[in-house]
Amino acid sequence: MGEYQPAVMQDEYYAAIDLGSNSFHMVIVRVLSGSVQIVSKNKQKVRLAAGLDDNNTLSTEAIERGLNCIRNFAEKLQDIPPANIKIVATATLRLATNAKDFVVPAERILNHKVNIISGEEEAKQIYLGVAYTSANKGNTLVIDIGGASTEVIIGRDLQALHLASFNMGCVTFMEKYFPEGEISASGFEQAISDASNILDSDIDVFRCFDWEQCLGASGTPQAVTSILVKRGVSDAIRLEYLYRLKQECIDAGHIGKLSIEGLAASRQGIFPSGLAILIALFECLKIENMQISGGALREGIFYGMLDTYQKSDRRQQGINQLINRFHIDSGQSKRTQELAIRLCQSMCSQTNFCDFDTEVVTAAAAALHEIGLHIGFKAYNEHGAYILEHVDLTGFTKLQAMMIKDLVRLHRGDIDLAPIYQYKDSLQTTLINAMRCLRVAVLLTSRRRNDAIPEPKLKINGEEWQLVFPLDFKIRHPMIHTELIHECWLQHRAGWQLKLIEAA
């Protein structure tokens, strides 16, 4: 028998490797029918940046840690077409005076070129990954705190407008300001102050841009969000939350005593330093709130390889993928979505409680409201919420995805306000308004025919919502009328006023 030769996967498989300063990551995706599906993720804490000395020489121990990791990665790369592989290295190998001592053997192990990218190129790739996975409106501020560098980008849609890479990261700051794992108030203040001074060189340019939203890409922002979720806080990241976490770190006194529910053990050792940098960014850029993006550098790498990938509407692409995957009736999805959007737009024109998220989450929840039918009709709204909690929803931020999940749960039956109360007050209003529009749209499209949708005018008078129908509405649609009467009662029990009016 001849020597075993591994079969190379078909051309639709791609691999991206990010040799970061804190962790090494490998992502393998499959591209099929315009859909990008992650089939494998590997991550290993290498702490490469911790191996840099004062002269930026990378230690032998750090090099060996990195090479041991990529020896594991190399096995899976054998199955990917070489043209579909891209490997990038970031801040630590940019800084290391002896980078070749790592790169040469790494390329030999991987049988592929390692690209040490500049800070500006890293920022561009991060923004591309965020833009593809978290569709935005207007200008967006994107922040990525790495192990040895922090990237800040202002962009619109797929175009980065202004970007900068700063030489500060959670690994390098941990070594400098929290030595031996000691966490002190003075260490925090010095780290925040020095981070602010580093940012000062370019901060005025970023302030010149007005941004609609701020997105954090993985790392520390994701860790903060995980903590908030564990505490039952369904909200964006805000400075007040960061200050509380800072005090909890100081109270612990040492990394070994840091016990914050929701903080992964693998993140614990560099959390205080990342938190200090994040606080400095919030203070210097006057950030009110930050949501979590769906992707970052790795996603930017492989989306950049997909020349034929459709770039128009990532949100709709994400929705279409789930419609196909869970066999949702696309016609019913579309008609419910279109009516929900019209009701939402009418509501927004008459109130002061709308923002970018309102129409976005209403439209998505309407399109996906029947996703739970894949499991069964009974309690299909609960099934749908469960599915949406465990799948990736391309084109939406983490917070938007949470709101969509809860809207799907609440689109029918008795109104349980408990999920809504987990959100900040302003987001509660957004969610309630979106839910009321969605529930009405679902009832009005229940005959599942485009020519059998009674479309009312929505009028809002203070606290009262009115659905104004033609005079023959009750005669032409007796079942829908009965169901709407019941919906008025359900909304009344929840504390809202909904009335049906027939007028000439």
From TrEMBL:
Domain Ppx/GppA phosphatase C-terminal per the UniProt entry, residue ranges: 315-487
Protein name in the entry: Guanosine-5'-triphosphate,3'-diphosphate pyrophosphatase
Pfam families registered for this protein in UniProt: Ppx-GppA, Ppx-GppA_III
Keywords on record: Hydrolase
Domain Ppx/GppA phosphatase N-terminal: 27-308
Keyword Hydrolase: yes
Ligase keyword on record: no
